[in-house]
Amino acid sequence: MPRIALVxxxxxxxPSKDADLPVLLRELTAAGAEAYAExxxxxxxxxxxxxxxxxxxxxxxxxxAEEFTAWLERCGxxxxxxxxxxxxxxxxxxxxxxxxxxxxxxxxxxxxxxxxDPVALPDGHExxxxxxxxxxxxxxxxxxxxxxxxxxxxxxxxxxxGLTAMVQPYMRGIDxxxxxxxxxxxGRLLHASRKRAVLAPGTPYDxxxxxxxxxxxxxxxxxxxxxxxxxxxxxxxxxxxxYARVDLVDGEDGEPxxxxxxxxxxxxxxxxHPDSVPHVVRAILTAAPAV
Length: 291
Fold this sequence. Notes:
291 residues, alpha+beta, five-stranded antiparallel β-sheet
C-alpha cells in the first residue's frame, strides 16, 4: 500500500476550510492507500516515510513565503512531491504571469512595483492592486482613479512588508461573464467552474473576502481550453503536473485572458463536482511510486 500525505495547513483554533480533504482521505483509504493529512509546518511530520506528498491546501504559505520555500526544498529531498519543487517555487510568485505573456499566452496586462520602485498607478480606468505572493485575495483591492491616495498607501504598506505589488486593469468582463476556473488533474481536464467577482468597489485591501462567490459548474468553451492548454505548455521545463487550475476572465475584446495559473494549492471544488473524485484518486495513486 502506498503511503500518501495530503499536505495542508494548521487552521487551529478554527476548523479547516478544506472541504476536499476528508473526502480524499476517505476515498484514498478505500482504494487501498495509507493516506494521512499532514500540516506542512509540523516539525513532527516524517516526510521520508511517505511515498508521495501531495500539496493540497497549504493556504497560509503566502504569509510565510521564506519558511514555506525552506520546507519545500527539504520535503522534496525526502519524498516525491506533487507538484514538483521547481514548479511550486516558480508558481509561488505571480511574476510568472510576465513570463507566460512573453511566451505568447494571452494574459491580463500586469505591471510590477517592487519595494523601492516609484509608485506609478493607472490614470483613467479602474484597476486592481495585489501582491505577487498572495492567496485568497489577501492584500487585494479594486480602485478607481479617484482613489489614488488610498491605492498609494496600499502599495506602500506592501512595500513596507517586503512585498512586490502587481497592478492590473480591472477586467470588466468579470462583471458579466464571471471568472472561470478550468481544473486539470493527472494530465487531463477534470472539470470547470465559474464564480462572480471577488473584489467589490470600496472593500479595503486588508478586509477578509469571500474567495469563491457564486460558484457554479461551467462548460469551458474551445477558446478557453485553447488558452488553458497554451498556458500549461508554457510552464518552464515542461514538467509533469499532477494538478493545475487555470483561472480566466474576458478581455475588452471578449476573448479569454489568463488571470492566474494555480500550480501550488488550488481548491478542487469537489463538493461542486463529486463525479471528479474517482479520477482524482486514480491520478494520485498513479503518481505514487510502486511499493
